[in-house]
Design goal:
Layout lengths: L16 H18 L7 H7 L4 H14 L2 E3 L6 E3 L1 H11 L4 H16 L2 E8 L2 E8 L15 E3 L4 H7 L4 H15 L7 H14 L2 E4 L6 E7 L9 E8 L5 H22 L3
Antiparallel strand pairs: 1-2, 3-4, 3-8, 4-5, 6-7, 7-8
Amino acid sequence: MKSTRPRARGSAPPPSGGTQSIGRAVALLKEVAARNFAGSRLVDLARDAELKPATAHRVLACLVREGLVMQRHGTKLYFLGPLSYELGLASSMHFGVKEIGAPLLRRLARLTGDTVFLTVRSGADSVVIDRAVGGYPIKVLTQEVGARRPLGSTVGGLALLLALPEDELAGIVAANARRLTRYGQLTEQVLWRMIRRSQALGYGLNENDIFDGVTGVGVAVPHRYGRPSVALSVVAISPRLAPERRAEVVGLLEESAQQLSRALAGE
């Protein structure tokens, strides 16, 4: 029986046929990418992509045949496949953010002594595209390069949320609600607390909110023609980012964000 539930005003009609299959494949690829370092079980992928296991298995089998997804020998875990890597290389020529930002990351890591992340937005997610490690003996490496996380589950992603209008922000938080609990102590309620505090401060702040003993600050890189899609952040053990030092680190981040913004604009 066809659903008679009214569609939200302005929303697109539900996909069907080939478009629906593409949507399912993309949803599964995103979930595989989100866990690519540890691998993904079929049951977890099906649940988080909101698909029946049989449907998820059928789509994944197609993605494996095409090389976008792979299963390592001796395990049933799914990982991104070689074609995903090749496509990423092919597209990288159009995205110079990592190359342009690398000197700024190294400088920030040298000045702060802590770990610096360069993060970009991808829909309702954020992806770490580079990081630099400072000289302080205790390193906080909470995010791997290439890791895909829900917006707000990293302090860089939190900084990007702050640039959004309230309705879009609320929609993203609601859409990601089920995924947030994968990350330490994070919940939808905790994320809203972080958002409101960060809005008052003017920069992203995660202060022991996700993992005890870990604090991070982040700022969005200004975009003169639209909403920011790139963020810089510093993450350290909490004593390193106590309030008295935090302002200094945020100042360095804001200065670097302005420099990166000008560089990306070709100045």
